[in-house]
Structure formats: C-alpha cells, structure tokens
C-alpha cells in the first residue's frame, strides 16, 4: 500500500543554508520560492499585449484640472442634498480632516464619559453615591469627592492639552513635503514617572551637541523597567558604528602603508598628519600619517602605487557635481565614498562622468577615458569592474572586490599574492574592512568578441542578470593583483566601554544586523563583544547541538512528555567565554521557519476520510510541538552564551528573535536601532530605544526613548533606570505601609465601638491624609532619592543586578510592608487606648473622649509615617527635609483651623470637632503618649536597619562606606589585540554595501541631479534599507 504524498514538500535534505545571502523577503510568496526556469510568455499575454499596442487611443472631453480641493466646485447645488429645512449637506464625503476630539460644548460630558469608563473611576463614583446617603454611610461624601475631583481635574486638563496639540499640517518646508509628527501620552496623576521622564530629557550628559540632540523619554510608563533589563538587542550599522567609513591603511605591491612614519620610513609615535595642501582637490578631511606613501606617489618610482589610486578613482559608480567650485561626491554606499575620497586626496580626483566617459585628475593632469563597460556589483559576485580605453588607445579592466573572489581569478604569476594575504590578516586583526584591487590588459580582438556577448546579454528580455553574470565571468580572469584597501567602519565613541559595563551589569547583548557574517563578526571584535579568548559557535555547530538535544529529549519521552519533571542540561560545560554567530538562513533552518516549495502534483485540498483528517491534525500538532521545543532549545543555548550575533537577518527575523526571548525567558528586553528596518524589533521588545542618526527618524518615532549615541545607553540604564526602579520600589513599599498603618486602625477600633462602623478619625482627616498630609515626602523620595551617585552607579555596574532579580519589590517585600503596617497600626491604636483608660487631666477633667482619642491617634500617625519616610530616604536635600517637617506642620495647621469655632459656625454639619485639637493637645500627658507611640513605632526599625547595614550590608552600603576612596573616576582601558603571525584570523568584510543597478543607471545616461532626484533620496527610499540587509 502506497501512501499519498503531502500537498507540500520541504526543501531537499542535503540543502545547506547560505551564509552570504539574506533569507527570503518577508512578503515573498510560495510560488516565488520555486526554482525559476526559463520564463515563457503565455500566448494569451502576447495576444493581450498586441491588442493593447494596436488599440486606438480613447479621447475624453476632460482636462487634468484637479477639483479635489476646489471648495466652490463641490458646493454646487447638484452636489448637495437638503437635510433639514434649509440646511444642506454634501452628497459625498468631503476631504476635510478633523483633528480635534472635543469642542466647547462637548468637552465636559465627553471627557467625563471617557474617564468613568475606567473601572477605578467608576468604582469611586459608585462609592461617592453611596456615601451621599446618610442612612447607609458613616463617612461624609466629601471624603471621596475631593480626591476624585482632583484625579478627574488633572486628567481633564491633560486631555484638553493633548487635544489642542493635535494640529493639521498645511505645508512642510522639508524635501518631498515630508513631516514627522511627535505625539506622547501622559498616563493619569503618575507624577513620579512623569518627572523621571523629564529628568531623562534634562540630562546634559546625554545631550549630543554636535547635532543639538538631547535625550528624549517618549513614554512615562517604562522608567522603572529600565532598571530591570536582561537582554539588549542592538542593530549594528548606525547604532554601534557611525556609518561613516574612513580610509586607514592599504597594501600596494606587497608593501603596507598607513603606519605613523616619516618619508624615510622611520616610525614615530608622535607625528603630524600628512599635509595635502599640494593637492588642489584635497578636501582636508582625511587624517593620514604615513608620509612615506606620499613620497612614493609624488616620486613615481613605483608605478603600481599610482595605478592603485587611479583604480580607486575610476572603478566605482559614484556621481559628482560641483558646488561653489568644490567637488561633491554622491556615493551609493559609505564604503565606496570613502575610497573615492581617498583617491582624491592622494592626487587622483574623479572630476566628471558622462554616459560613455570618465574624467580623472591624475596628479594635476586631467585625462578623459572612454568607458566601454561597467560590470556591476551584486552580493553573489562580491566585486565590480570597469573596462576603459585610455587616451593612448589601450583597453584595460580594473576590478575591486572581496579577497575570496579576487584570489580565485588571479593570474598564476602574481609575486605579491602571499604578502597581500598577510596584510589582509593584519588588517583583519585591526578590525578593518578590506577590498582587493587588480587589473588586466585586454587585446582589441578579445574585447570585440567579448563585447558582442555583453551587448547580447544586456538586451536579453529574460534572465538578464544571470546572462550578464556569465559574460562577466569570461572577462574577469587572469587578473594582476595591485594590493588591498583597509577602511574603518568607525565605532561610535564609547561603544566598547558601554558594552563592557553593561556586561558587568549581567546584561546580555545580542547584535541583530543585515550585514554579512564577516562584517558583523568584525564589528563584534571591534566593540569587544567578542575577544580572542571567545569560543565562537556558528550555524552548523548550533544545528548539531540542537539536533543532539532533540534526540535526547525524544528518547526520554518525546516532545509530549510535559508532565515529566524538567531537566536542566547545559549545552556547554561550565567556564569559558562563548559566543554565537548565526546567519538568517541558518536561523530559519534551526527554528524550522523555512518556507516550503509546492508540489507539482495537484492534490485535494480537503481530506477524504475522518481517519485522514485525524492523521493530518495529529501530524500538524506534532510538527508544531517539535517546532516549539526546537525554538525553546535554541533560546536556552543562545542564553548560555555571553554574546549573540545574528547577521544577514531580515526585519521580520529581528522581531522574531526578540519575541522568542520574551516568550521563553520571561525577561525584560530592550531593542535599540536607528533605521526603518529596526522598527519591528523596537516595537516587539518591552522597551524600544531609537538612535537619531543617518537613517532617518523612523526608529526614533517608534521608540520609547531616544538619543543620539549608543554610549548614552549605559547612563539610561545604569543611572536613570536603576534610580527609577529603586525609587518606584521604595514608593510602592512606603505607599502600602502608610495606608495599611492608616486603614487598619479602623479594624482594631471596630472591636471597641460595637462594630458600629464609626471611624477612628475625623472625616476631614480621612479626606486629606493621602492628598496633603503624607503625599509630598513620598513623591519627592520617588523623584530625588538615590542610594549612590551617578558616577558610582556607572563605576560599579554590579549594582544594577538588584533590579534584574527584582529584589526590592516582590511578594516577600509586599508582605513585609503589610506586616510593618499591621504592627504600626496596632501600636498607633493600642498605646493611646491604654493611655486613655482610667486617666485624668491636669484640670481634673477626663481626656478620654472620642474626639481627643482621634486627635491623638491621627497626630501620632502623621508624625510616624513622615519620620518613617525620613528613615527610608538615602539622599537628603533641603527639599526632602522641608517636605517632611512641612507636612507635619501643615497637618497641625489645618487641624487647628478645622477644629476652630469660626468654621463650625459657618459649616456646622461638616466640621463637628470644635475645639477638640486645642483641648486635647494642651495636655502634656497626651504629648507624652504621642511621643511614646512614635518611638515604639520607629525605634525597632532603626535597630533593624543598623544591624542589617553592619552584619548584612548590601553592595550599595559597602560602596557608601568607602565612597571617599572611590571618588576618583576609574579610567576604562581597551583590550590590546595581539596579532599572531602565521595564524590566519581574517574576519574583515569586503567593503561594498550597495545593491546592483547603479551601473545601468550610469550606462543609460540618466544623470542624478540633486535638485531633481538626489542620491540621498534614493538611498533613503530603499538603498540604505537594502544595504542594511544585503550589506557589504
């Protein structure tokens, strides 16, 4: 019996992921994944096309005048209907845009309706209604009305401000009418989070003066989560690097240039940069210190040196224009721009180009070359070439590309091949990006024969790119090696230091980039995410480990063994520093995210029998369970590594990796990037950070926090994040404590009032307790408190770990606060109760009346909770001290006013404690009772804090104890890279980063003019986006 094949078949078993290519597009269909055979035009398409070409044009009696915004045109009578009497309205929807939510008449009812849709506000509204019925409530209605009115009023003002801020853009001065609109949402009377956000905005140490860019908190709800980050997912280009390439070194004819040396080849540690003033075309921006190279260029003793820079000036797709007499290059990639600018500074300036010519200034002499062909770059070729005819009539091919493809096409007689190979290894140890340069003389007959094939391939209607690549291969062989370039994709300032400190804070950093594997690995070493001691695992290693793990799990019971006790088996032995580098293709392979190819055989869509349906359902569930287990295993393996680099990944894969860690590790994640292809990743993470750099504002507009440089991330997390977490935890613990202490007094009092629901306090005290008497000190502690200074926070990143482990507010801390509040409430109630039993005042009167008891308990409560916040405060300022003593003074001032006879005369039903405060507090006995109550409440806390700091000090306690010795800032030192001769450790990527097509743009004669279609706009529209996923 033969079983029918499934309707879909997977890729071949021996298929291996390609590290060099980006996986399929996020929008790619199943059909597009099939093998592309020769395209044959269907007959019907040909008939339709011919009919369309031969059809007579249809003429309409109309013009191209736009009526969409013509108000008079749309107000004509036949466009309007009568709605009510003489009131008319348009038949059709208008293009009017209403940006406001409220108007003068609807603001109050609509805003109240929106606010009471929230459960908390609606609850207090019902409570207020019940309290307004005297028969069922012992509390006055205003005890709930005043706090509710405060909340509703502040929220209404916020909503009104937000509504007014919604504006309609009528015009924009930006090119192409671009506009970026920034919006923000303030979440309710959360004052602490709001002010913490302002502190981030006002931090001058996160301000970037070069671009006048301050840090910006674009949300107010995530500040404390900044102190709990476990994983950071970072883009590379423009985030870790400046996306600015700099020519650093080169190897010409086996000789390395670029070290600090004079014209006599003597090395100097301190030497002035090369003076390019002899060159009229030099831009003055290149800092180069090898004077011997200049000597070689000017003397002309070695023709290969001039040939080297001539190749850089002629073999490219850069466009040029003159602005105010200065050359302005528009390059398709920063890499290519850096090389052409280097040639310009060394005396070989690219001046102009037409469809068929290119003009170069060679050491001051202008020469024009005929461009016979441009052999374009793509990610498979990893090289580009140009064929030119010299003014003398010679035909020459110039080529630049990755060393892996150039070395395969060199002539056997290349004497400097090994020396250049050694130079490439040295450049790699310095994390520089390299290209190999070569050339070839072409005979007239050889070119004529090749050109026929080239023209035929250029005009091919199908499979044109494949045909061109095949023709290119025929001419790009037997090349003569000139040397290699080394450019630096310069890291942003402070990146290695930031990564080092974040690692010490036990934060794992994953780099997710579209760059090729070698480039990403290169940057990993440059920013010290990877070191020479790091053991790197690649895609095939990971796949093997995961395959073994899945086999072991299957042998123990399979993927359905959910009820078996979990067994934690590490993938690696303990100790050692490991990193994971995986490409997008391997990522799809490992996570079982490969798209499948459709079978050529047409199958029935639905199963024929119930048995077949059951089998298909079981098979689908089994595959889903296997996929889930595989993904979990991958996350476990990756999280055992100190660093993870995912390269050649699409934006969708970036978001997928973040989601996997969120799903299986239950850890707080942060994603940081600068471009549009980072938006998915930024939105998927718990916290998104946008870098305002070279790639536009898409990432910034989608982020929760933004700034201009990656190095500010350490201050955002280790200072603001840690402080915010500590402050919020203290605020919540104290908030629960003070309310438990306040509320539970009613519970104890109920045992003595016959459960009559009589309150232990005056009604107005209940109303103002959380609003005035105990709010300001805790708010200021939540805003200003800090256990150690910002400098010590950065110097000791290990302090950050308490937030990651959530040690300052959890169930244990909550129950400690609950217990503390219960004990305080018992002390507040029972000590005054015992003091009032069988007592007599100095005047012979008994002070043990209900009102005097309420005043005593309330006074002890206010003093206790305000002094308690003083004990919880680590960073004292005048404002903190004023708020604590001011709150106590405010309490007594308001109490004496509310207990006065004057206010009782005006509002007799609302103020019934007439004279209670003055009568009670003139008794020394009651003051002694208050002092005793406060002392018994606070002294145990003081004793426990002292013992804790002495016997079990925290890390911050230890640092504070020795803070005087630690005032001097610790200087971070970069690791020294050691080059081991004879050991090839080349990690550098080839310095190309643009897509195919620029050669066609030049050859077709279409010029790129800044006024009409600047190349920057083309890059912003797609080229830079592609470069980040098909990077050099």
Automatic annotation (TrEMBL):
The chain crosses the membrane at residues 116-133, 731-752, 814-838, 850-869, 881-905, 925-948. This is Phospholipid-transporting ATPase. NCBIfam families: ATPase-Plipid, ATPase_P-type. It holds the Pfam family PhoLip_ATPase_N. Its cofactor is Mg(2+). Belongs to the cation transport ATPase (P-type) (TC 3.A.3) family. Type IV subfamily. It catalyses: ATP + H2O + phospholipidSide 1 = ADP + phosphate + phospholipidSide 2; a 1,2-diacyl-sn-glycero-3-phosphocholine(out) + ATP + H2O = a 1,2-diacyl-sn-glycero-3-phosphocholine(in) + ADP + phosphate + H(+); a 1,2-diacyl-sn-glycero-3-phospho-L-serine(out) + ATP + H2O = a 1,2-diacyl-sn-glycero-3-phospho-L-serine(in) + ADP + phosphate + H(+). SUPFAM superfamilies: Calcium ATPase, transmembrane domain M, HAD-like, Metal cation-transporting ATPase, ATP-binding domain N. Component of a P4-ATPase flippase complex which consists of a catalytic alpha subunit ATP8B1 and an accessory beta subunit TMEM30A. The flippase ATP8B1:TMEM30A complex can form an intermediate phosphoenzyme in vitro. Also interacts with beta subunit TMEM30B. Keywords: ATP-binding, Cell membrane, Cell projection, Endoplasmic reticulum, Golgi apparatus, Magnesium, Membrane, Metal-binding, Nucleotide-binding, Translocase, Transmembrane, Transmembrane helix. GO terms for cellular component: apical plasma membrane; cell projection; endoplasmic reticulum; trans-Golgi network. Residues 43-54 have a biased composition (Basic and acidic residues). It is found in: Apical cell membrane; Cell membrane; Cell projection; Endoplasmic reticulum. It is a multi-pass membrane protein. Residues 1-54 are annotated as: Disordered. It is an enzyme of class 7 (translocase). Residues 68-144 form the P-type ATPase N-terminal domain. One of its GO terms (molecular function) is ATP hydrolysis activity.
